[in-house]
């Protein structure tokens, strides 16, 4: 009889170390929490915002970005305070809020934003109203750039006046309006960045720069909302520059508080006394001249003044011929190696209307000895020439009478030690453009308006705002027939609710089964 082998002895079960498991679980929870906290900390301070809208509607322009990074804000010890008093029911609330937050982000802490809803925060609204003595009946952004403890509001002779470094930007300033055929005023576009940047610059600088328009010499259509005068005034206003008309006749000297002088579409030539006033002003340190000429209509004394500074308006008309068609709108590109036009360098554009060419004597020795440096800013494309007998019929290039390439439509002139960093701020500057038709609303192009705005900022010594400016956002009307509106209403009111009711009934029935 065989004996069976006894089964091996089982090892005693190892006791469960509950303290060890609990400690390990606690350690894992702590490490996970620390990882999440570290991840949130890093992502809150190191992140990249991506604007996925079709036209980058929430991305600030290069001109605004450059200004936010300039010394005007970077060297401030006290941040600029923004109070956005907008009700959330306002149709532009979300767009303005996101735009304002982008200013805060790109200023690196130099702008502090507070959003106040007058309906939800009545106590805070009352405090803001009392501080600035305002009645917040309309959506508004208050920009407070005071650097000292001066009062926000001063009372003089019973009049309430805001501190020069406090600027108010109304919601109406951010919206473009048009009047339809029924006489109703409707919103047609949004220009929030224009209004906010202009308000910020004015709050920091205190006052708008003043450019004097020689009204008795400049003959520009100023009637109506769509006039060239209104276009020029609006462009300058968004650069915190005020266009003020003044008569040159009888003036002994240009006022010292003027940031520049503009001569637009001159019809009458200067007298000897007026030319002397202009030359005396140009001889000053930091003089600024903006000259917009009509083609082929340069007056003798003005032409001599410009020629003495290296830019000669030529008596011609810039044209080209393509097959049997005559091209009168000059095409070309902005030139390189110009600091205030570096964002536009190489950008092609068209100057609609009539243009004449400019002879620009770059690197001329006789001008260099006088510290005068002219440079071409916009060069006409190949195929164009300066026709000296425009209107005679059968226009064709004649190398003996007409002007050949290179042709310029715009030029800058710097007088003084422009290459010296210490003295560059004391230079006198001039912009000459041989076209005024580009100011007409029907001829406006975005790149030409950017060029004009950059030129004005360069003239007044505000290079940080030069560059590609913000774009206005348009509103679009979707044409829908009455039958289509009826179908959409039926889908929203009948079909969609019926679909969800049916889906819910099917799910309930399946669970019951």
What does this structure look like?
The mean pLDDT is 85. The strands form six sheets. Strands 10-9-11-12-22-21-19-16-17 form a nine-stranded mixed beta sheet. A four-stranded mixed beta sheet has the order 2-1-3-6, sandwiched between helices. The chain has two domains: 51-207, Glutaredoxin (3-Layer(aba) Sandwich), CATH 3.40.30; 208-471, Rossmann fold (3-Layer(aba) Sandwich). It is 31% helix and 22% strand. With 513 residues, the protein is α+β, with helices and mostly antiparallel strands.
Which key features would you list for this structure?
513 residues, alpha+beta, Glutaredoxin, Rossmann fold, 2 domains, four-stranded mixed sheet, 12 helices, 31% helix, elongated
> Rounded to an integer, what's the Rg over CA atoms?
33 Å
The CATH topology label of the largest domain is Rossmann fold
Note poorly predicted spans.
none
CATH class of the largest domain: Alpha Beta
Strand content: 15-25%
- Treating each run of at least 4 consecutive H or I residues as one helix, how many helices? 12
Shape: elongated
Largest sheet: 9 strands, mixed
Q: Count the strands?
A: 23
Structural class: alpha+beta
Average pLDDT metric: 85
What is the CATH architecture annotation of the largest domain? 3-Layer(aba) Sandwich
Reading side by side through the largest sheet, how are the strands ordered? Answer: 10-9-11-12-22-21-19-16-17
Count of discrete domains = 2
Helix amount: 25-40%
Distance between the termini: 65 Å
